[in-house]
């Protein structure tokens, strides 16, 4: 085996109204080029991970290149299968490795986005926080390496975490 690719997702303070962010890491010249080609943000995450992450740490010892792609999912959305996240990761795999994307997944993702839009419209708390998440998103997309990032105001962060504890139903 010459290449190992780890795919995953995590909940994050991202809006459902924008293209989902993907962060990642790579080891090996070709893998690092793939990360850049896909427009993946370099991951600065430091914290708990899964045991499969050990593979990416040990792989360079046997000259195996690795890439990790983690899609950020809106924390305020509860789904059994997140087609928006799946399609976003598949777009990257299609770009890099010509892996086809199932048209049905695009359709399911569009339906999910529509359901999420309806739930946000019906929820004043989520409706209030969405513009703030979009502003933070803009800062993350536009930030340069090493720049700090402006976060939610204390009031918006409180609302965000309160909504995290509530079940708004499945999308």
How are the secondary structure elements laid out?
Layout: E1 3-12, E2 22-27, H1 29-37, E3 41-42, H2 53-58, E4 65-74, H3 83-97, H4 103-121, H5 124-142, H6 154-164
Parallel strand pairs: 1-4, 2-3
Antiparallel strand pairs: 2-4
Helix pairs in contact: 3-4, 5-6
Query: Helix proportion of residues, in percent?
Result: 40-55%
Give the number of DSSP strands: 4
Indicate the structural class.
alpha/beta
Mean pLDDT: 82
Task: Output the strand order for the largest sheet.
Answer: 1-4-2-3
Taken as a percent bin, the fraction of beta residues is 15-25%
Question: What would you say the CATH architecture is?
Answer: 3-Layer(aba) Sandwich
Can you tell me the CATH topology? Rossmann fold
Assign an overall shape: globular
Give your account of this protein's structure.
It is a single chain. The protein has 171 residues and is α/β, with parallel strands linked by helices. It has a single domain, classed as Rossmann fold (3-Layer(aba) Sandwich). It has six helices and four strands; from the N terminus they run E-E-H-E-H-E-H-H-H-H. The longest helix has 19 residues. The chain is globular, with a radius of gyration of 17 Å. The N and C termini lie far apart (39 Å). About 4% of the residues have low confidence.
